[in-house]
C-alpha cells in the first residue's frame, strides 16, 4: 500500500500559520514611518511599541508549551490565530500610544502558542529523519510573512493608509482557522485520511533518543541543568535578536539611514527575506540528509546551527559599507545564515526533549529566544537616537550571533541527560512538573 501524504498537508498548514503570524507582526515595521509621523512618535517610543508584543509573548511561552502537551494542538491553534488576528486589526483602529501598547501586548498572548504548537505537531506527525525539512518549511514562513509580503504591505500603507494594512492582514488568520479545524487531528492515528502505510512510516525509523519508550516526568531544575538545553536556549536568543531587530527596524533603517522611499525599501527588503527562506529550507534539508547518511541527529543539527550563525556575522560589515545594494546583500547573507540555523534549532528540540515534552521544551526555548524581542527593538531605537546611526546596533547583533556559533560547538553534545521514569498517569502526553 502506498502511503498517503497527510503529514505534509499538516506541515503546509503550519507553514501558512507561521507566514500569517509573521505577516501580522511585520506590518508594524512597514507601517512604522507613517505611524511615527501621524502619531508623533520618536524612535525610542516606536522601539517600545515594537517591544510590547514580546513582553507577553515571551512570558507565555512556558505555560502555553505545557498546555500544548496536555490539551493538544487542534483547539489551541485555532483559538490563538483568531485571537491574534483580532488584535492585529485593532492595531489599525486605536490612535493613542497607551492603547497601542495594550493591543500589542494582547497580540503577544495570542501568538504565543504558535511555535511550541508547531514543534509538537511535527514531533507527532513526522519521523525524525523528516523533521529537519518540516521545521525548515515552517520557519520559512517567518521569511515569507515578514519579508516577501513587504512590497504589498508597503503599497497598502502608501495608497490606503497604515490603518487599512492592519485590518486587511489581520483578516487572513480567520480563514486559516477554518482550514485547520477541517484538516487537523491531534494524532495521525485519529485522522481518517491517514492510511496504515503512512501511519507506519510516521512511527518507524525514529532517530530521536526519547522518541520511543515511556513518557518522562522531569522537574524544571533537572531540565535546566542540561548543557544541551542551555545551548539551544542561548542559540535561539541570538537568532531572535537579529530577527526582531530586522523585523522591527529594517524598513525604517532603509528609509532613514539608507535614504530610500518606503516603496523602494519594500522592494529592497525582499532580498534578505528571500535568502532567509532559502536558508531555512536548505538548513533543514541538509541536516535531514546527514541523518539519513548515518550521522546522529544532534551532530547533524549542530553542524548546521553553528555554520548558519557564523554566516550571520555578515551583519557586521553591512553596518559599514557605503552603498545601498552592498548593505542589503550583506544583510541578506546574515539573515540567510540565521535562518539556515533556525530550522535545525527547532528540529533538535524533538531530539533532546524528554518523551512527551517537546512542546514544553519548545516553549522554554521560545521564552528565552523572545527575551530578545524585549531587548532588540528598544535597544536599537535607543542606540540610533543617541548615536544618530544604526551601526553599533548592527554590530551588537553580529557579536551575539557569533557567540551562538561558539556555544553550539562547545556545549551541544550527544549525551543522555534525562532518565526515563514512567508517568503514573494514564495520559499519553506527559508533563513537566
Structural key phrases:
transmembrane; 77% helix; Growth Hormone, Chain: A; membrane; cell membrane; MFS_dom
Supply the CATH class: Mainly Alpha
| Alpha-carbon Rg, integer | 21 Å
CATH architecture verdict: Up-down Bundle
What's the total helix number?
A: 19
**Pattern of helices and strands:** HHHHHHHHHHHHHHHHHHH
> How much helical structure, as a percent, in the residues?
over 70%
Regions with pLDDT < 50 over 5+ consecutive residues? 207-213, 420-433
Morphology call: globular
CATH superfamily: MFS general substrate transporter like domains
How many structural domains are formed by the residues?
Answer: 1
Largest beta-sheet characterization: none
Strand segment tally: 0
Tell me what portion of residues adopts beta-strand conformation.
under 5%
CATH topology: Growth Hormone, Chain: A
* Overall residue-averaged pLDDT value: 86
Notes on the protein architecture:
- This protein starts with 5 loop residues before the first helix and ends in a 22-residue tail after the last helix.
- The protein has helices at residues 6-38, 43-59, 61-71, 73-91, 97-111, 114-125, 128-148, 150-160, 162-183, 196-203, 220-224, 227-256, 262-268, 270-292, 297-311, 315-318, 324-352, 358-387, 391-411.
- The protein has 19 helices and no strands.
- It has one domain: Growth Hormone, Chain: A (Up-down Bundle), CATH 1.20.1250.
- The longest helix has 33 residues, at 6-38.
- The protein is mainly α.
Task: Give me the secondary-structure topology.
Elements lengths: L5 H33 L4 H17 L1 H11 L1 H19 L5 H15 L2 H12 L2 H21 L1 H11 L1 H22 L12 H8 L16 H5 L2 H30 L5 H7 L1 H23 L4 H15 L3 H4 L5 H29 L5 H30 L3 H21 L22
Helix pairs in contact: 1-4, 1-6, 1-7, 1-8, 1-9, 1-12, 2-5, 2-18, 3-18, 4-5, 4-6, 4-9, 6-7, 6-18, 7-14, 7-17, 8-9, 8-13, 12-13, 12-17, 12-18, 12-19, 14-15, 14-17, 15-17, 15-19, 18-19
Pfam family, one: MFS_1
Membrane topology: Multi-pass membrane protein
Protein name: MFS transporter
